[in-house]
TrEMBL record:
<dbReference type="Pfam" id="PF00107">
    <property type="entry name" value="ADH_zinc_N"/>
</dbReference>
<dbReference type="InterPro" id="IPR013154">
    <property type="entry name" value="ADH-like_N"/>
</dbReference>
<keyword id="KW-0862">Zinc</keyword>
<comment type="similarity">
    <text>Belongs to the zinc-containing alcohol dehydrogenase family.</text>
</comment>
<protein>
    <submittedName>
        <fullName>Alcohol dehydrogenase</fullName>
    </submittedName>
</protein>
<dbReference type="GO" id="GO:0016616">
    <property type="term" value="F:oxidoreductase activity, acting on the CH-OH group of donors, NAD or NADP as acceptor"/>
</dbReference>
<feature type="domain" description="Enoyl reductase (ER)">
    <location>
        <begin position="8"/>
        <end position="341"/>
    </location>
</feature>
<dbReference type="InterPro" id="IPR013149">
    <property type="entry name" value="ADH-like_C"/>
</dbReference>
<dbReference type="InterPro" id="IPR002328">
    <property type="entry name" value="ADH_Zn_CS"/>
</dbReference>
<dbReference type="InterPro" id="IPR036291">
    <property type="entry name" value="NAD(P)-bd_dom_sf"/>
</dbReference>
<dbReference type="InterPro" id="IPR011032">
    <property type="entry name" value="GroES-like_sf"/>
</dbReference>
<dbReference type="GO" id="GO:0008270">
    <property type="term" value="F:zinc ion binding"/>
</dbReference>
<keyword id="KW-0479">Metal-binding</keyword>
<dbReference type="InterPro" id="IPR020843">
    <property type="entry name" value="ER"/>
</dbReference>
<dbReference type="Pfam" id="PF08240">
    <property type="entry name" value="ADH_N"/>
</dbReference>
<dbReference type="InterPro" id="IPR050129">
    <property type="entry name" value="Zn_alcohol_dh"/>
</dbReference>
<keyword id="KW-0560">Oxidoreductase</keyword>
């Protein structure tokens, strides 16, 4: 198969032929239809989230079943499926209680095993994790169902329990932030988006946000409190850095809820936060990572019933050979929307 291989941190990915994967017991092999290029992939590429090298990156994908391992009962050749980036075992106490994102035996394509910057990817624990790709959803958009959109959905509904009419502050207008914005609007929230790139704020406003705050030129937390009449009910931090985490907490009103979605790594793995604001505001702070596979039906039902168009998330359909340039672009300001690999042959 053709694949992009990470052989050294911050090195260009090596495009070449690699051995085809075989299905593990209980797993399948997918022909990759699309794979998103995510900021979490950039964390791997930089070494901030180190992995065993060499490694094929890519954790946000959808595909067609081309091989089925022993013990798989729910999937057959030709099925088109989506998968969460956390592949849970399905048998441990955490999985049995529905908390698949904390499964101690989880597999993570692109992190603990080869990922989907390739024509083929092996997916373990298929019966536990895979969901049928809806016929009305194109593969490029379905790839985002593996990470950005699902993470946003779980943050809003599984952690913060957002309610109609509440104010939602979104810190970071990348793929997760835009997903939170669109899903939040579909759930009846009023949305304020914070970023330092005006182009991204303008994009979020076109997607329905009530307001945009440019943190490069103003005190973002104060601006959110002013816009919302005292503070947001829910804040979503979607970058994983100290400045936005602190600002998200300070943007909340009394009894507000903040969800840390952005992955704190490197210099941001440990950060000081204003515990006085947590205490005096009686705030709730949640961490979140991915989404349990059993929650796909609720998300897909909302998308179908509301006819929410998530296609504005996808701004670039790129070739496998473009992946290195897309990863390095995360070092600086990136344009609105996300890049998805849809051409694995060039």
């Amino acid at each position: 198969m053709r694949a992009a291989l990470l052989t050294g941190y911050r090195a260009p990915l090596e495009i070449g032929v690699r051995p085809d994967p075989t299905p593990p017991p209980g797993g399948v092999v997918l022909r990759v239809l699309a794979c998103g290029i995510c900021r979490s992939d950039w964390h791997v590429w930089t070494g901030a989230d180190p992995v065993r090298l060499p490694q094929i990156p890519g954790h946000e994908y959808c595909g067609e079943v081309v091989a089925v391992g022993q013990g798989v009962s729910q999937w057959k050749l030709g099925d088109r499926v989506i998968a969460p980036f956390i592949l849970a075992c399905g048998h441990c106490p955490a999985c049995s209680s529905g908390r698949q994102t904390i499964c101690p035996d989880q597999a993570l394509p692109g992190f603990t095993q080869d990922g989907a910057y390739a024509e083929l990817v092996a997916v373990p624990f298929a019966d536990t994790n895979l969901t049928a790709l809806p016929p009305w959803m194109e593969p490029a958009l379905a790839a985002a169902m593996g990470c950005r959109v699902t993470t946003a959905w779980h943050a809003l509904t599984g952690r913060a329990a957002i309610a109609p009419g509440e104010w939602l502050a979104v810190f970071g207008a990348g793929g997760v932030g835009l997903s939170v914005t669109m899903l939040g609007k579909a759930l009846g929230a009023k949305v304020v988006v914070v970023d330092v790139i005006q182009e991204k704020l303008d994009y979020a406003m076109r997607l329905g946000a009530e307001a945009g705050v440019n943190a490069a030129s103003t005190d973002a937390a104060a601006a959110v409190r002013d816009l919302t009449g005292g503070g947001a009910d829910v804040a979503i931090e979607a970058l994983g850095i100290e400045e936005t985490t602190v600002s998200a907490l300070k943007s909340l009103g009394k009894m507000g809820r903040m969800v840390q979605v952005g992955m704190p790594t490197g210099a941001h793995a440990t950060m000081p936060i204003p515990m006085d604001a947590v205490y005096s505001g009686q705030l709730a702070v949640f961490g979140t990572r991915g989404m349990p596979a059993w929650r796909y039906p609720s998300l897909l039902s909302l998308l179908e019933a509301s006819q929410l168009d998530l296609s504005p998330l996808i701004s670039r359909r790129v070739r496998l050979s473009d992946a290195s340039a897309e990863l390095s672009a995360f070092d600086g300001p990136t344009p609105p929307g996300v890049a998805v690999i849809t051409d694995f042959l060039s």
